[in-house]
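Ticket #4471: structure export looks truncated?
Reporter: QA, pipeline team
Priority: medium

Steps to reproduce: submit the single chain below to the structure queue and open the exported record.
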Amino acid sequence: MTFHASAFSSGVLLFVALAWGQTRVDLRSQAKNVDFSQAPATKPVKTGTILPQTCSTGELFFKTDAPAGQNLYACTSTNTWTVLSSGGSSSGLPPVNGQENRILSNNGSAADWRIVGLGLVMDSVQLAIDTAVVPQLYGSNTFQATNSFRGRLEVTGPAAEVDFTGAKSTRPVRAGTTPPTNCIPNEELFLDTDDVKLLVCNSLGNGWVQPRKRTIQFSLGDGSTPVTSGLSRWLTVDFSGKILACTILADRADNLTVAWLKRSAGLPTSADSIGTCSLSSQQYVRDTSLASFTNTSVSAGDWLRIEVTSPPAQATMFTVALEVQEQ
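Actual output as written to the record:
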């Protein structure tokens, strides 16, 4: 058989040309068991920022500008795209970045993150609470464990009360060896553990005194003749406090009025009256209303004196006294 070189060369060239020109492969009909596991990179779906206006069921599209996790869309019916990343919902899960300590809720059309405060208050949402754990403002609350209150705990109102009768122990006041320098005047208490004594803040709020009652007392009369009008002897006090009551005791029932005089420096006179105590056909009276007193305070260094302004008819001896709460 005779071969022509020119014809052979032409056939080879034609075969090479045909082989080189076939650059597009239909994987649906020309491939079997396609394995891309060793490929350096794969992009199995179309990408872009705008979903195509038309599609056929089964197509996929990767939307590059969508939130992470909501990028993959499927054509679920002709010309209808549905995001696959959120379980079929077109809204999806809102981004979690910057939403610390918030809970996921919804506004009726889309999911959103909402702040939950200490009272568990949410817009348009009501949360159930465990009343055994969370105290109720107007309910009866029982605290089972140790509770620390960082702010101010107040018990107010006419019906408010604190009942410690069933307590194993109580520690109602601060305690220590050195009281604080400043305190709440006439209110704050401190237990001095060195001397085992209870102290109260003074009226100036810069020191402490031991609360106790003091008595300022005068006795007049000789026991034989009725007491007459006039000024009596005087005395000075070395403590501060508040007058709580005025007491008069006579040797018999009678009418009697005594004025208390006070001056911070010098001997008191009739012009220094701070109030009166009286008997009205009585032998004894203890006046706690102090309605006639214009001043019920006593300070260390004050001078006190009494004056009989309305003498008795028959009483020959009496004692008049002021009860003072030291402060």
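Status: closed, not a bug. The export was complete when the record was re-opened. Leaving a note from the reviewer for reference: Residues 97-138 form one domain.
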